[in-house]
Amino acid sequence: xxxxxxxxxxxxxxxxxxxxxxxxxxxxxxxxxxxxxxxxxxxxxxxxxxxxxxxxxxxxxxxxxxxxxxxxxxxxxxxxxxxxxxxxxxxxxxxxxxxxxxxxxxxxxxxxxxxxxxxxxxx
Length: 123
What we know:
- This protein is mostly beta strands.
- 0% of the residues lie in helices and 43% in strands.
- It has strands at residues 5-7, 10-12, 18-23, 34-39, 46-51, 58-60, 68-73, 78-83, 92-98, 112-113, 117-121.
- The strands form two sheets. Strands 2, 4, 5, 6, 9, 10 and 11 form a seven-stranded mixed β-sheet that branches. Strands 1-3-8-7 form a four-stranded antiparallel β-sheet, with no helix packed on it.
- A hairpin with a 6-residue loop joins strand 5 (46-51) and strand 6 (58-60).
- It is globular, with a radius of gyration of 13 Å.
């Protein structure tokens, strides 16, 4: 099973930026589409963004369009989520995820989750 590890979360003021990273130590990410999801306290987990295995296709939730950018560096075996103009409502635990044998977006049935990284947007 693909094991994913997120990093890069933290506390940031409204309007600030963070870059999240998703890595896999024992698997090659380039064979998978990777999605970012988030879960805020008391809310259901929601999809934020997705990138195809080649990086040629990306998609975003309406709530983050124009502010977040997903990218990948298959040479570094990593996927990134650049988050700009952060808002308090972006506060959540962010997870990266993959679906077995899926190379295109969206992720439909998650088969691998990371442990999550906390993002808190507050003044």
